[in-house]
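Re: [ENG-882] Designed sequences occasionally contain unexpected residues at chain ends

Forwarding the minimal case from QA. Structure tokens:
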């Protein structure tokens, strides 16, 4: 599918969202549009698989389909309805989930489709007819293309709900940088404990695919607390054609989903952008954590940043486990219990790099963030060292939000891969120097900015000041003359 056709598909999907304006709040669009899109996709694919089976053998069997769609639960069944449309949609969703309990349980979310105050029959008929305009079978819309269009919608919904968007969306070029730093490979397991809409898992998947690795051998795992967002993540992975993944809904810090009794599951790649400085995250439970995640101490209940760090470190597999986490800059230098935890983690010789990003890149917050990179086994040349990268100038200024573009991500990745001192931007720091700084990781302590001072020609500057003053006096005299004319 050409770029023009992709753009047309994106605009068509956005047109569906626009039908909801008025009765549905902008922040809720995604809870309605994504389930309908997925329903349309699996219905069209089912019909395609059915026709292929009849053509090849003259009859159809359940094993011909990845997803089972029971009677009265097909898209065409809903399209025939002219009243109580919401009830028919809700029935179809529940029947499809029951018919595919291992794959689709809860995937359609918990929207009340029968609320006619919000969703009149007329509105739902318009939505169904809009989605019926295109056939979304695999032969017509490949998974990569539909996945790109889905990501476009996620980004559009994030733009609509800026303040809340950070809960489910991380700027894609930041995600791309993190995946490129970790360099996932085929046959590896990848885990995001705060997976949002699944962007970090997908970017890791794309990295392997673009590296010509066999993505069928990847295993993707994610946990997400919000029901709607976890459903969006699952749909996202399904629509991209990902085969082997598991997204669980739940509170990772209180109740991690991936474990064997009291032994936390281990993964080759751990990657996340967890909620910044989360309050009431469960420190009381963590003080006696049965999984032993408080390996460097228990953070206070007013800030969960280092709870996420320790959970992710505890989730890295031997011998090549590696992780990247987005944190607010304050995590690099805050004192108290965080300072003690940071010291203990640094002494474990796991931290490889600290990458400082520019301001106002993330939805819902204007503060600067950083990416911390940890590895179970650092390269020999990186032992007892931490690589500091100041990428705070790598962004494009925007009106409401700044942008971290592909060229910025490439520049930072080049610095990271190069692992060398770069004036104004990067420095390899010995552990002893960090120790002297009382384990403060504030990037400006290590990467010094040498600002060029422009030479000033005093004689010319004095002339310009006098000229400006003369112009001011002339303007003032003209103003006085005008006021005198009108007798003021």
């Amino acid at each position: 599918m050409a770029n023009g056709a992709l753009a047309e598909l994106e605009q068509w999907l956005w047109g569906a969202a626009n039908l909801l304006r008025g009765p549905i709040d902008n922040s809720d669009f995604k809870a309605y549009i994504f389930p309908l899109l997925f329903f349309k996709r699996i219905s069209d694919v089912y019909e395609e698989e059915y026709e292929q089976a009849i053509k090849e053998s003259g009859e159809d069997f359940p094993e011909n389909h990845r997803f089972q769609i029971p009677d009265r639960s097909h898209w065409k069944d809903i399209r025939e309805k002219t009243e109580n449309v919401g009830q028919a949609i809700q029935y179809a969703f529940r029947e499809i989930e029951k018919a595919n309990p291992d794959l689709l349980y809860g995937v359609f979310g918990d929207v009340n489709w029968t609320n006619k105050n919000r969703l009149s029959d007329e509105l739902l008929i318009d939505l169904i007819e809009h989605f019926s305009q295109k056939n979304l079978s695999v032969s017509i819309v490949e998974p990569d293309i539909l996945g790109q269009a889905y990501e476009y919608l996620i980004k559009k919904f994030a733009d609509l709900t800026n303040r809340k968007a950070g809960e489910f969306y991380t700027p894609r070029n930041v995600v791309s940088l993190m995946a490129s730093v970790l360099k996932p490979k085929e046959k590896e397991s990848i885990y995001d404990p705060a997976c949002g809409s699944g962007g970090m898992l997908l970017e890791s998947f794309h990295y392997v695919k673009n590296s010509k690795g066999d993505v069928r051998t990847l295993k993707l795992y994610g946990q997400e607390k919000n029901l709607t967002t976890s459903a969006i993540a699952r749909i996202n992975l399904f629509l991209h054609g990902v085969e082997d993944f598991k997204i669980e809904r739940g509170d990772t810090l209180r109740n991690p989903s991936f474990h064997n009794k009291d032994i936390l599951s281990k993964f080759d790649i751990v990657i996340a952008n967890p909620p910044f400085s989360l309050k009431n995250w469960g420190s009381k439970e963590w003080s006696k954590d049965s999984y032993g995640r408080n390996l460097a101490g228990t953070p206070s209940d007013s800030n969960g940043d280092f709870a996420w760090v320790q959970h992710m470190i505890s989730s890295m597999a031997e011998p090549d486990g590696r992780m990247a986490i987005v944190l607010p800059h304050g995590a690099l230098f805050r004192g108290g219990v965080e300072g003690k935890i940071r010291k203990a983690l640094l002494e474990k010789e796991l931290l490889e790099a600290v990458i400082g990003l520019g301001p106002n890149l993330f939805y819902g917050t204007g503060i600067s963030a950083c990416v911390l990179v940890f590895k179970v086994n650092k390269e020999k040349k990186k032992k007892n060292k931490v690589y500091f990268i100041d990428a705070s100038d790598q962004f494009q200024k925007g009106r409401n939000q700044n942008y971290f573009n592909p060229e910025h991500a490439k520049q930072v990745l080049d610095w990271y891969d190069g692992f060398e001192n770069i004036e104004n931007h990067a420095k390899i720091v010995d552990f002893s120097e960090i120790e002297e700084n009382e384990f403060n990781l504030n990037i400006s302590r290590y990467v010094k900015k040498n600002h060029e001072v422009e030479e000033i020609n005093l004689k010319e500057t004095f002339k310009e000041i006098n000229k400006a003053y003369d112009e001011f006096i002339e303007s003032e005299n003209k103003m006085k003359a005008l006021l005198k004319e009108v007798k003021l």
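QA comment: On inspection the terminal residues look reasonable. The chain has three domains: 3-160, 163-445, 457-488. Proposing we downgrade this to a documentation issue.
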